[in-house]
Design brief:
76 residues; mainly alpha; 4 helices
Length: 76
């Protein structure tokens, strides 16, 4: 039996979503495209996940969060 996943509302912290088992649409596959895009500008409507995407990028690149990398990004 799989654990029940909850749909988050107003949560923009990537680590909290992953560690507390919230439903998350994985966008990590877009990181290489973002690295090759110049300039990276996030123009999207309200409630479209911009803050969560930036939080995901912060955890992805943050050297201080390296010990949490496998836990946060495994399975993505």
């Amino acid at each position: 039996m799989q654990p029940k996943m909850t749909i988050p509302y107003a949560i923009a912290d990537f680590a909290r979503l992953r560690e507390e088992g919230y439903y998350y649409v994985d966008k990590t596959a877009y990181i290489p495209y973002l690295e090759n895009y110049d300039p990276p500008v996030f123009l999207r409507p309200r409630r479209f996940g911009k803050s969560l995407y930036v939080s995901m990028l912060a955890y992805y690149y943050d050297i201080d969060a390296a010990d949490r990398f496998e836990r946060l990004f495994s399975g993505t």
